[in-house]
Amino acid sequence: AQQQGRFDHQGDLEIVSVTKRFGDFVAVDDLTLTVPQGSFFALLGASGCGKTTTLRMVAGLETPTSGRIELGGKDIAGLKPYKRPVNTVFQSYALFPHMTVEDNVAFGLRRTGASDVRTKVGEMLELVQLEQYAKRRPAQLSGGQQQRVALGRALINRPQVLLLDEPLGALDLKLRRSMQLELKRIQTEVGITFVHVTHDQEEAMTMADTIAVMNAGRIEQLGAPADLYEHPQSTFVANFLGQSNLLEGVVTRAGSGEYDVTVQGAGLRATRVTASGISGRCWIGVRPEKVTLQPPGEGHDAGLNRLSGGRVEDVSFVGVSTQYLIGMPWGQELAAFEQNTGKRSSFAVGDQVDLTWMPDHTFLLDSAQDAS
Ligand code: ATP
């Protein structure tokens, strides 16, 4: 049902050339992005990159210095926060301590004069799986349960966009993991656009359909989780989403998506490159879990990339994998992760090894665009 006085234009959320300055400081720098209606979108970045400021501008808690924020093609900049079809869930939950769970959830309906409050609250408690806790007060709930109350309260009046600002930040790791899956289930069920702010790359990758990686007020790269992970387009994204081995090289041959690169005298290939026009100096990269260690000269397969002359510097057992640190003759340390299958780890500190991996698992970055 449409709620009176609320803006109800369906559609994508669009942030168009939005800049936010605090004095001389540019917190958000000419940001443009589209969040498709019904998607689970993550704004991912380190502390201070401008993600919360972006969210607050969508919520109406902060005014852009310039640019437009549109929903379904209509500018929402002129609307007061409570007139926007947007709700926010904060890390702090901000529940009312003296109210029961059901009253906290019903609070979201207070401006709408809805008639069937009891039914709606009942449905919402079911969605966030808190039916048995309806009469409790927040202090009698766990952190995860309190987070569900905050979520129920924010969703009950069916906003078109739900903004989540580090909503799982206060939970311990195990609970975070289960709430991530829970949030994803709830988002799929309600079909509301979720914009989730986090600095945790695993969290963003677990939940979001699309991730925008932010750095210094700008978007570094936007795409599906696997796309960003497998085809990072800058060293920043390569390092921010998981661990990367990045090697400086020179392009010796460029074809369509296929490149030959020389690194420290070794010829390497990258065969699934999405960026085009890379030439001269470059970064060539591979994820540690894609690297296989071999005794020197063994397992020779002409199709594989190979770097010789490594020495195992460190071996750590981390449950699902064993993580090796390999010192290379030119002074760089590279990482290789081996899946633990019950066998003992194959190499020990001091062993000589070659690193091999498939050209398909190799990414390539233009070194002109970032010098980090
Ligand atoms: P965090 O994860 O730490 O919240 P963030 O990426 O969400 O970081 P923002 O909160 O958006 O970052 O802040 C971006 C930058 O803008 C920061 O450098 C911050 O200090 C600055 N900033 C934010 N709000 C204000 C303000 N009201 N006045 C001045 N500077 C501000």
In terms of topology, how is this protein built?
Blueprint: E1 13-22, E2 25-35, E3 40-44, H1 51-59, E4 66-71, E5 74-75, E6 86-90, H2 101-107, H3 117-127, H4 143-155, E7 161-165, H5 173-190, E8 193-198, H6 201-207, E9 210-215, E10 218-223, H7 225-230, H8 235-240, E11 245-254, E12 259-263, E13 266-270, E14 281-286, E15 292-294, E16 305-318, E17 321-327, E18 333-339, E19 352-357, E20 362-366
Parallel strand pairs: 3-8, 3-9, 6-7, 7-8
Antiparallel strand pairs: 1-2, 1-4, 4-5, 9-10, 11-12, 11-14, 12-13, 14-20, 15-19, 16-17, 16-19, 17-18
Helix pairs in contact: 2-4, 3-4
Residues 22, 25, 27, 45, 47-53, 199 line the site of adenosine-5'-triphosphate.
Family: Belongs to the ABC transporter superfamily. Spermidine/putrescine importer (TC 3.A.1.11.1) family.
Pfam family, one: TOBE_2
Protein name: Spermidine/putrescine import ATP-binding protein PotA
